[in-house]
Amino acid sequence: MVRTGVVTGRALHAELWRDVLDAHADVEVAAAVTDVADLAALLIDLDVVVVDAEGPADAARVSDAVRAAAAAAGAVVAVVVAEPDATPGEVAQRIRTAEPSMTVLSADALRQARGTLRSTTRRSPTAAYPRLTPRELEVLGCLSRGLSTASIAAELGMSVHTCRGHLRTLMTKLGARSQLEVVAYVGEHGLPGS
Questions:
Q1: pTM of this prediction?
Q2: Model confidence over 78-111: pLDDT tens digits?
Q3: Total of domains in the chain
Q4: 145, β-bridge pairs
Q5: Which of 18, 139, 160, 183 could form a disulfide with 166 if both were Cys (CB 3.0 to 4.6 A apart)?
Q6: Which structural domain, as residue segments, surrounds residue 47?
Q7: Do 133 and 101 belong to one domain?
Q8: Phi, psi for residue 122 in degrees, rounded to 5
Q9: Structure confidence by residue, pLDDT tens digits, 132-159
């Protein structure tokens, strides 16, 4: 059972999300709220938080707020962004496959994030990319293709734990607060050597 919280800007949508996701036997909606602050006390018991946002900028803002609240609570959650055209079945599948500390987007949303989200990183690519090891460059390439942590680990022949370590190092070196920001950074600056 995947314990899930939902954050949406519309009260009616909160209850709708609860109803449609609870219909899936392996998903339990523990809370459906309109403000991240209302979810903060429950984060330690959640596996996934679904963000129902209006556009990529709002999704990034709410996702960052969820991550900050989770860090303050000592919790590790995956964030699944529910795009307006996503079906409940698609969102439930993303919930099932989400991994801790990851932000899960559809392929369309990932492409849109690459094109519209401004990176909040502080380093230029010429300053950041030369500091990456060859293995980190391989992980970065896989991440920029939208692969999950487990898929990156399998493709590169490493454990998921090692892959997560490389992802954390990438975020630190690029000055990013999330994997979504790393992807936006690559979308903005291109992959090293490309």
A1: 0.57
A2: 888 887 767 788 888 888 887 776 666 555 555 5
A3: 2
A4: none
A5: 139
A6: 2-106
A7: no
A8: -105, -20
A9: 888 999 999 888 877 778 888 999 999 9
H or E segment at 33?
Answer: strand 27-33
Contacts of 192 (CB under 8 A, 6+ apart): 125, 129, 130, 132, 137, 140
Q: Identify whether residues 78 and 6 lie together within a single domain.
A: yes
| Residue 169 near residue 106 (C-beta atoms within 8 A) | no
Query: 78, 106, 134: which is the final residue of a domain?
Result: 106
Residue 137's Cβ-count burial label (10 Å; 0-12, 13-18, 19+) is: middle
Residue type, 56: P
* Residues ≥6 apart with Cβ < 8 Å to 95: 2, 4, 21, 27, 48, 50, 80
Determine the pLDDT at residue 117: 43
Find residue 78's DSSP bridge partners.
Answer: 48
Amino acid, res. 30: A
Q: What is the C-alpha to C-alpha distance for residues 85 and 90, in angstroms, rounded to an integer?
A: 10
Residues 56, 131, single domain; the answer is no
d(CA 15, CA 33): 9
102: left (phi over 0), alpha (psi -120 to 50) or beta: beta
